[in-house]
Specification:
Elements lengths: L2 E6 L3 H14 L5 E4 L12 E3 L5 H11 L4 E6 L3 E2 L3 H11 L4 E8 L14 H6 L8 E3 H8 L6 H11 L3 E11 L11 H11 L5 E4 L5 E4 L8 E7 L3 E4 L2 E4 H12 L5 E7 L5 H8 L5 E5 L6 H11 L4 E5 L3 E3 L4 H9 L4 E9 L5 E3 L23 H4 L1 E4 L6 E5 H6 L12 H11 L3 E12 L11 H8 L2 H4 L5 H4 L1
Parallel strand pairs: 1-2, 1-4, 2-3, 6-8, 11-14, 11-16, 14-15, 18-22
Antiparallel strand pairs: 4-7, 5-8, 6-7, 9-10, 12-13, 16-21, 17-22, 18-19, 18-21, 20-22
Length: about 475
């Protein structure tokens, strides 16, 4: 299980930092291959210095001179944390993986710890979240290094494309001296486009202001989205005025949404004032209404709306949300129409602009939770990128009509709580991804003091999904 570490060139002081930390923590069978001159007094049988040379040559020479079954890269100046390599080797002795990555922090930073989710291919398409000290099975490394070198991000995309299993060791294993390993000769967008050509064939890629890649499927302008809005015709004070919530939502939809092809299906609960429905339908010819009888059941209302829908995509939308920016629906569609996506959610903010929803973490023990709830929208990766979760909230959930009916729609025995989680877990069981698209941001006027009453049968229904919730990619740092 031995690991060969390749240290890319840096100053003499930086090389000394990395080599010194290696000598403290490395097991006897680890190997260090240094691009540069070895500092005086730091010779060791496990260390070989190659002198300065191009990165691709250093990597090739390191592989041909090493005996390790695994290879990882660091930059001169990076420091091993105590127990780092032992933790990685222990993982490799138990788990049959081809690529293994760790958590990291930045040298000199008190709060710069990067705790990472389990393997999320979509996230690596957008940014190199794997960082450094990524152990790659030797054969895969040789294949990737045998191709033109276009930087670490390209290298990691290539090895993970070929990997049978990518594992995460949830330990802070290394302190990085700088965020980037080295610059690439190729534009980041070209790197991601190359990856997509080799995998899914999708290639609609642009660059966000933060440098990450934005990957979208082509969205035909005539793609119909049926927006299903369960409503009781409720009102709420917003600012200085009391407003009809569904009216506020529809007016924001009309005023801002750039995707041109949509319909709104109001699903009116028993007792909803018919005059309110008339008022709402008069707002736009694309708004219609149906009625459901009996005690309010969110799942039954959604199912009724889906049966009345005309579009291939269904958007479940609460009547207490407000559109904030024009491209929100196009952003969501661009992710839903990508291969393998079953459901898409959006970032929802409270009126004070704190976070209400960026996805739902589904721990196998305990209950579903909203990460970063009540926090400021601070621009971290999980509040800006497209992030896979096991579930998103039904307050704003876009899905394929075909998938909706294939899994039986919403479970009507869950009329209030966990019906959205249950729906997304049914998709997960069929291999469909659920993604929160943070570029789609809406206001949600749900009360921040509201506490849902969870009944025993609802808890039991959630616990029945333990075999799926054990795979949640975010529980290492949110539970």
């Amino acid at each position: 299980m031995s690991i060969s570490i390749v240290v890319l060139p840096g100053s003499a002081d930086e090389v000394a930092v990395t080599v010194g930390s290696f000598l403290v923590v490395a097991p006897a069978d680890a190997e260090l291959r240094v691009g540069g001159t070895l500092p005086a007094g730091m010779s060791d049988r496990r260390i070989v210095a190659f002198g300065p040379q191009p990165i691709e040559e250093l990597l090739r020479h390191s592989l041909t001179s090493s005996s390790g079954g695994w290879v990882a890269m660091l930059r001169a100046g990076d420091e091993f944390e105590p127990g780092a390599l032992a933790a990685v080797e222990a993982y490799l002795s138990e788990i049959d993986a081809d690529v293994v990555y760790t958590d990291h922090r930045y040298v000199g930073s008190r709060d710069g710890v990067a705790l990472k989710p389990r393997w999320l291919p979509r996230l690596l398409e957008q940014t190199n979240y794997l960082g450094r000290l990524v152990a790659v099975r030797r054969g895969l490394a040789e294949q990737a290094i045998g191709e033109p070198w276009n930087g670490e991000w390209d290298y990691l995309l290539r090895v993970t494309e070929r990997a049978r299993h990518v594992g995460h060791v949830p330990v802070v294993a290394v302190s990085l001296s700088a965020p980037e390993l080295e610059s690439s000769h190729q534009h980041p967008i070209a790197i991601v486009e190359g990856h997509l050509r080799r995998t899914t064939g999708e290639s609609v890629v642009s660059r966000r202001p933060d440098g990450s890649a934005r990957v979208r499927a082509h969205v035909p302008p005539d793609h119909m989205v049926s927006i299903i809005v369960p409503t009781r015709g409720g009102r709420r004070r917003i600012g200085e005025a009391e407003v009809l919530l569904a009216e506020n939502m529809i007016l924001s939809l009309i005023a801002l949404t750039t995707h041109p092809t949509w319909e709104v299906i109001l699903v009116a609960s028993e007792g909803t004032d018919p005059l309110v429905l008339d008022r709402l339908m008069a707002l736009d010819g694309r708004v219609s209404a149906i009625k459901v009888e009996g005690t309010f059941n969110f799942s039954a209302s959604v199912n009724a709306g889906a049966r009345a829908a005309r579009g291939p995509s269904l958007l479940l939308l609460n009547d207490d949300v407000e559109v904030l920016e024009p491209a929100w629906l196009s952003e969501m569609l661009g992710v839903l129409l990508r291969t393998g996506t079953g459901a898409v959610g959006a970032k929802l903010l409270y009126p004070d602009r704190t976070i209400q929803h960026i996805g739902v973490v589904c721990p196998p023990y305990g209950l579903p939770l909203h990460p970063r709830i009540f926090e400021r929208d601070s621009g971290t990766w999980d509040t800006t990128l497209d992030v896979d979760y096991l579930a998103v909230t039904g307050a704003c959930l876009l899905t394929h009509r075909s998938d909706f009916f294939e899994v039986g729609g919403f479970t009507e025995n869950l009329p209030l709580n966990f019906n959205d989680v249950d729906y997304c877990l049914k998709l997960a069981l069929r291999g469909r991804a659920t993604v929160c698209v943070n570029a789609a941001t809406l206001l949600h006027f749900e009360s921040s003091t509201r506490t849902a009453q969870i009944l025993d049968y609802e808890r039991d229904a959630y616990r029945a999904w333990e075999a799926v919730t054990l795979t949640d990619p975010h529980t290492a740092y949110w539970v």
